[in-house]
């Protein structure tokens, strides 16, 4: 299936015009040269960010390369790479994918990630890449997991095995919007679990978790907690968009 998809995408790139996922102008590639240049100049990855949670640092935090929040309340994950801020030029593309169900944007977003990050991250040592899961109820409603649709198209070291079904999520009716960081951590507790078929395979492993948007970090922290409680050795987050800081209380 992936082989046929690559052939189809190759034919599309040569024969059919494509709309830029940012400015929506028609041209050959999924993001035009102007928008890609803008992202290369203004993207969050250009800024001094906390190595652990990916948030931008203030002047007093630069020496340790770690934000005050991570110093006071160390998360379970070990490192975070973020492409851009949530307020940046890719926000609409993510919304088109998640809420308008336009799957072609997953290809475009992955292409942007590959263009900017593939060389930088190709030598990262890890055993597995897992997308943040959605519940079966949400999956049946949306029809796809947006994090997996992007992650499956991302270029990474061939030694890294992508496991879309290793992590599972219980369905909770709450919406994780608003409230402080502490409230978000409490709301997400116990939501994620590892499929029994993968428990031993993940033990002692270095794992990459991919998410389209990182807000408070509560979701990724809970996933990291579950994985480390089950024996995972190291957790790295790969994140498309990162929001600004949220107060702890």
Task: Explain how this protein is built.
This protein is of the alpha/beta class. The protein has one domain (about 15-240). The protein is about 35% helix and about 15% strand. The protein is built from 10 helices and 9 strands. The chain has helices at about 1-15, 35-40, 70, 90-100, 105-120, 135-140, 145-150, 180-190, 200, 220-230; strands at about 20, 25, 80-85, 130, 160, 165-170, 190-195, 205-215, 235-240. It has a 5-stranded parallel beta sheet with strand order 3-9-8-4-5. A two-stranded antiparallel ribbon has the order 1-2. Helix 4 (about 90-100) packs across helix 5 and helix 8 packs across helix 10 (about 220-230). It is globular. Residues about 10-15 have low confidence and may be disordered.
- Helix and strand run: HEEHHEHHEHHEEHEHEHE
Domain unit count: 1
Radius of gyration: 18 Å
* Helix content class: 25-40%
Low-confidence stretches: 11-16
Largest sheet, strands/sense/barrel: 5 strands, parallel
Mean pLDDT, to the nearest integer, reads: 89
Note the gap between the termini. 47 Å
- How many helical stretches? 10
How does the helix and strand content classify structurally?
alpha/beta
Please give the order of strands in the largest beta sheet: 3-9-8-4-5
Proportion of residues in extended strands: 15-25%
Q: Count the strands?
A: 9
Q: What is the 3D shape?
A: globular
Topology:
Layout (H helix, E strand, L loop, with lengths): L1 H14 L2 E2 L6 E2 L5 H10 L25 H5 L6 E7 L5 H9 L4 H18 L6 E4 L4 H7 L3 H6 L9 E2 L4 E3 L11 H8 L3 E3 L4 H4 L3 E9 L3 H12 L4 E9 L7
Parallel strand pairs: 3-9, 4-5, 4-8, 8-9
Antiparallel strand pairs: 1-2, 6-7
Helix pairs in contact: 4-5, 8-10
């Amino acid at each position: 299936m992936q082989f046929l998809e690559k052939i189809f995408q190759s034919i599309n790139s040569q024969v059919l015009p494509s709309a830029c996922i940012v400015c929506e102008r028609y041209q050959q590639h999924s993001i035009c040269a102007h928008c890609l240049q803008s992202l290369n100049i203004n993207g969050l990855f250009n800024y001094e960010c906390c190595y652990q949670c990916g948030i931008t640092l203030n002047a007093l935090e630069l020496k340790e390369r770690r934000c005050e929040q991570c110093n006071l309340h160390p998360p379970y994950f070990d490192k975070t790479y973020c492409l851009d801020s949530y307020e940046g030029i890719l926000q609409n593309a993510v919304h088109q994918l998640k809420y308008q169900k336009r799957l072609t944007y997953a290809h475009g977003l992955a292409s942007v990630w590959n263009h900017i990050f593939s060389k930088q991250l190709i030598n990262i040592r890890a055993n597995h890449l897992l997308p943040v899961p959605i519940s079966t109820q949400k999956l049946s409603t949306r029809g796809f997991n947006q994090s997996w649709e992007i992650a499956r198209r991302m270029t990474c070291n061939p030694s890294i095995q992508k496991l879309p079904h290793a992590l599972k999520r219980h369905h909770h009716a709450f919406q994780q919007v608003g409230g402080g960081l502490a409230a978000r951590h409490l709301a997400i507790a116990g939501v994620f679990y590892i499929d029994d078929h993968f428990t031993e395979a993940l033990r002692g492993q270095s794992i990459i978790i991919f998410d389209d948007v990182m807000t408070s970090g509560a979701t990724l922290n809970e996933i990291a907690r579950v994985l480390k409680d089950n024996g995972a050795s190291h957790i790295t987050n790969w994140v498309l968009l990162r929001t600004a800081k949220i107060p702890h209380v």
